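Q: Fold this one first, please.
A: Sequence and structure below.
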Amino acid sequence: MDRREAEAAIEAILFAVGDSVETDKIAQAIEQDKETTKKIICHMMEKYREEDRGIQIMELEDSYQLCTKSELYEYLIRVAKQPRRPVLTDVVMETLSIIAYKQPITRLEIEKIRGVKCDHAVNKLIEYNLVKELGRLDAPGRPLLFGTTEEFLRHFGMHSLEELPEMNPVQIEDFKAEAEEEIQMKLDV
């Protein structure tokens, strides 16, 4: 199989599947090793960028997905009512940030950090497919553990969780101080 055939096969696979496909599965389908497959896909990604195409291949950890460029989203919604972008309020974003940095994490742990109930925010994040249940904690009551999804990576344009920005230690201390002040004000009332 030459490079053009391999690229056509990869494009067909990614288009037909719609979701992300693991590199190993693509390599197996085109009868190439994993490194060669990655090189071919990287070449395709660069070609799509150079040609300023309406689609792109996104790398999501050890898998790839064919998707529309985010800057062309407005044209999609002119044609179809769906897909619609999730509305991420401050509360939902705050909850998502906690989950992203602390995963796997339980609702109770999120609520301890935020200082308020988080049921609605977690349910919205699950509905938007940005967060999923990862299993249960081996503790009394067996609480659910939550973590981010591939959709989270796609939504924020990341390849992996390692790309999350590092938290500024000074900011963390400021946040802690603000939270303690809020708690104290609630107790004083």
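Q: Good. Now the second chain.
A: Here it is, same layout.
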Amino acid sequence: MYQRSFPKFVWYRLTQWAFGLPARGWFRLQCHGLANVPATGPVLLVSNHQSHLDPVLIGCFVHRPLGYLARATLFKGFMGPLIRAYDAIPIDREGMGLGGIRATLKRIKQGDAVLLFPEGTRTKNGELQPLMPGFLALARRGKATVVPIAISGAFEAMPRGRLLPRPVRIALVGGEPISPEAAAELDDEAFLAEVAKRLTEGLAEAHRLAGR
């Protein structure tokens, strides 16, 4: 079972509170279905990617600590200690080189919950973009439960190019998990389609909760 050091665990919980409390008020945040994230064991959270707010908000309101991916260059300089404090996983500049894949898979096999954005980049129009299939191998080889997490409102709050977020209502919705056993019965095409379907359904519910 993957375990953070006690100081890193305390830091994670403190920042959840420090960012989560004002975020709940500023964004009038609505959360639904986040209890679908298993409390233990290997988990891959896959989310649509609307803005730089996404990993912060998901990390604040999912009950268990999450593993994040971060560009290897961020581990250098003044950002380095902060990135390391969250036990982030270094990846190359292109997103998921061989080293990043190995490090992520190792973390999943150790029983961590890792957050990924399979669209590959932030949306330019607020809509869900096609999912890239790279996470399927991580889920299969890591025997991870896949949980879709939909977010609505983050694009309107902080689209590309905006430095400070607007006070726009945001909603987070956790979809029905896909167990490793269920995934084993699907080929990659069907697995990807099922994740996209559940993420699309979750996004529709998130839009409703956010008043869109």
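Q: Anything worth noting on the second one?
A: The mean pLDDT is 92.
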